[in-house]
Design a protein that fits this description.
CATH topology: TIM Barrel
Strand content: 15-25%
CATH superfamily: Aldolase class I
Bound molecules: S-adenosylmethionine, iron/sulfur cluster
Number of strands: 15
Mean pLDDT: 96
Number of domains: 1
Shape: globular
CATH architecture: Alpha-Beta Barrel
Low-confidence stretches: none
Oligomer: single chain
CATH class: Alpha Beta
Order of helices and strands: EEEHEHEHEHHEHEEHEEEEEEHHH
Number of helices: 10
Largest sheet: 13 strands, mixed
Length: 326
């Protein structure tokens, strides 16, 4: 097992498999995109699998595949199939924007993927186009239908910004009346490729009070262990509602995550700027046990929370979330 220097067990890998994406969400990337990395800089599938096997040996039991958009990487289904065979990995989840995902859902289900996070910030086609700079809402809604038809647990991620899409909070909450989905509102973070905060920040507290004004029966429920979301029910709604205090960073105390970027940089916190170059280690010819030692070592000087990690960075947060995975 890996334990960090604060006694927290590390059991969950978030792997960003690509920095490329077919959307340009304005809170994540500039309109023209970022300087996407040349392919040789990215981890190969073989390197990812070896790394996951090593981590599986060290007690990592859950893997989330994220990006960029995972399904723009060629042969993604093949990678997922191989990960599903790795000893020790009990759960594979995916975060996707849903543009290409609908036709793949039955196969995802067959591979044992029981839960998918679908990013959806608005149900209004024009606003979706403004926010993502692409007209893809119908494709995303098809993915939502496919997930529900196939009985895949669906969590909807919506980044909320005052004056941009705060009018979408209540329509998204209303979806939970008829649909068994968990809609989670995420505080905006400055990972947008420029470091500038384009929109007004809306805290999880403000988001919850806005929902409570409309739905006074909003009631807190128990959260899953290591959850980053605070979750609520509403009377007579099939689904649930949650908030993720990603900028306020209220959940660091139970963080069990290890993050790996598309170039194989290990992050022990979303807010750090990388603590170990796993890609170079994987390419250096050293043994699995030597890599294990380095992984364990990396967690012996982990920041206690996202504020400390941010203060230890060599540069201000400005990188795009597409290079980290969220
Ligand atoms: N492309 C996939 C998607 O959008 O679902 C996976 C990668 S995306 C970087 C992962 C998550 O990060 C998404 O739910 C997205 O909304 C969130 N995200 C991106 N930029 C963000 C930001 N600046 N602040 C908060 N969340 C952000
Ligand atoms: Fe792409 Fe996801 Fe970033 Fe949107 S949030 S630009 S879908 S990586």
């Amino acid at each position: 097992m890996i334990y960090d220097n604060h006694g927290r067990p590390i059991t969950y890998l978030r792997l960003a498999v690509t920095d490329r994406c077919n959307l340009r969400c304005f809170y994540c990337m500039p309109e023209e995109g970022i300087n996407f990395l040349p392919k040789p800089h990215l981890l190969t599938f073989e390197e990812m699998l070896r790394m996951i096997q090593i981590m599986g040996d060290l007690g990592i039991s859950k893997v989330r595949i994220t990006g960029g958009e995972p399904f723009v990487r060629k042969d993604m289904m093949q990678l997922l199939r191989s990960i599903s065979e790795v000893e020790g990995i009990e759960k594979i989840n995916i975060t996707t924007n849903g543009v290409l995902t609908a036709p793949l859902v039955p196969e995802l289900k067959k591979l044992g993927i029981k839960s998918v996070n679908l990013s959806l910030d608005t149900l209004d086609r024009e606003r979706f186009k403004e926010m993502t700079r692409r007209d893809e809402l119908p494709a995303v809604l098809k993915t939502l239908d496919a997930l529900l038809e196939n009985g895949v647990e669906t969590k909807i991620n919506a980044v909320v910004m005052a004056g941009k899409n705060d009018q979408d909070i209540l329509p998204l909450v209303a979806m939970t009346k008829e649909l068994p989905v968990s809609v989670r509102f995420i505080e905006e973070m400055p990972f947008n490729g420029s470091g500038l905060n384009e929109a007004a920040f809306m805290s999880h507290i403000r988001i919850i009070s806005k929902i409570r004004e409309e739905y006074p029966s909003l009631a807190k429920i128990a959260d899953e262990p290591n959850s980053t979301s605070y979750n609520y029910t509403i009377d007579n709604h099939q689904g649930t509602v949650g908030v993720i205090a990603a900028f306020s960073r209220t959940f660091c105390g139970t963080c069990n995550r290890i993050r790996v970027t598309p170039t194989g940089t290990l992050k022990t916190c979303l807010y750090d700027d990388g603590v170990l170059n796993l890609r170079d280690l994987l390419r250096s010819g050293i043994s699995d046990s030597q890599i294990k030692e380095q992984l364990i070592e990396a967690f012996t000087h982990r920041a206690k929370d996202g504020f400390e990690a941010e203060s230890m960075r060599s540069s201000l947060v400005s990188e795009s979330m597409t290079t980290i995975g969220g």
